[in-house]
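Lecture notes, part 5. Sequence design as translation. It can be helpful to think of inverse folding as translation between two languages: the language of shapes and the language of residues. The source text, in structure tokens, appears below.
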């Protein structure tokens, strides 16, 4: 397969994600005896994270040996090396490890292709649901549930009420943003979700906005951004600049707004939400 055929690459990722998901679920069914380690950044690590990492990295290296892989569970090359790569895979082998440990089903696996800093393709797979969300820049987005493949299209702002996709832990910043949105739109609802599945709520046409003010890493967001943008949405930093990848010394993100309707005048509304 030619590694520059992005749509074909997306399809080739699906069995790889399925294999990784099966490995994750083997550990999930024995979660009562699961050993949890703490990494240097104080985030949890389980055998499921590592099993998924091994399957995905080996699979990507076979599929596209010319494209480097950055995974959450691997050492990071120096920034001056990374920035010379025109294309790179960003992988979160188990996004929502805390949700996995809590056995609430709200975890997923993320793979994104970054080209010259942009998230050009992304796949998010929910092992519990056995559902994949796929987005390819300039080719569209779709959801794969069993044998059904459905085209995705984000909501537009003629729909009501305005719905926020949010973490289950609603911070003070999120509450202030919600209050600002309520002043503009009146009725505002919440759709709480763990992990990158919050992006999928927007891509599925269920939510209008996912504001994030807390820390995330590039592998947490890249696949979701690619999917939502391919479905008609947009993503920008809190100061309304493009959200790019593998451009800095750190792989930690700043905050962002994920928006369903890219044609709506969000700048006017969100300027108030970020003021002060």
């Amino acid at each position: 397969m030619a590694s520059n055929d992005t749509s074909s690459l997306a399809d080739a990722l699906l069995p790889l994600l399925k294999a990784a998901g099966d490995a994750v679920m083997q550990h999930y069914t024995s979660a009562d005896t699961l050993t949890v380690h703490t990494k240097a950044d104080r985030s949890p690590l389980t055998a499921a994270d590592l099993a998924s990492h091994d399957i995905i990295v080996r699979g990507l290296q076979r599929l596209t040996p010319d494209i480097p892989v950055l995974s959450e569970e691997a050492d990071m090359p120096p920034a001056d090396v990374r920035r010379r790569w025109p294309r790179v895979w960003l992988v979160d082998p188990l996004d929502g490890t805390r949700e996995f440990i809590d056995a609430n089903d709200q975890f997923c696996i993320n793979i994104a292709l970054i080209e010259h800093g942009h998230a050009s393709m992304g796949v998010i797979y929910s092992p519990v649901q056995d559902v994949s969300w796929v987005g390819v820049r300039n080719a569209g987005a779709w959801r794969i549930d069993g044998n059904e493949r459905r085209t995705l299209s984000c909501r537009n702002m003629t729909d009501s009420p305005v719905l926020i996709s949010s973490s289950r832990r609603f911070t003070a910043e999120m509450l202030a943003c919600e209050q600002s949105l309520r002043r503009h739109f009146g009725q505002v609802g919440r759709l709480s979700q763990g992990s990158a599945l919050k992006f999928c709520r927007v891509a599925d046409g269920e939510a209008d906005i996912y504001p994030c003010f807390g820390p995330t890493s590039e592998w947490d967001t890249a696949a979701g951004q690619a999917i939502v943008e391919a479905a008609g949405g947009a993503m920008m930093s809190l100061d309304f600049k493009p959200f790019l990848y593998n451009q800095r010394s750190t792989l930690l993100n700043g905050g962002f707004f994920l928006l369903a309707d890219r044609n709506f005048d969000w700048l006017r509304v969100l300027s108030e939400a970020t003021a002060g």
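The translated text above is only one of many valid answers, since several sequences can fold into similar shapes. The domain at 6-151 is CATH 3.30.540.10 (Fructose-1,6-Bisphosphatase; Chain A, domain 1).
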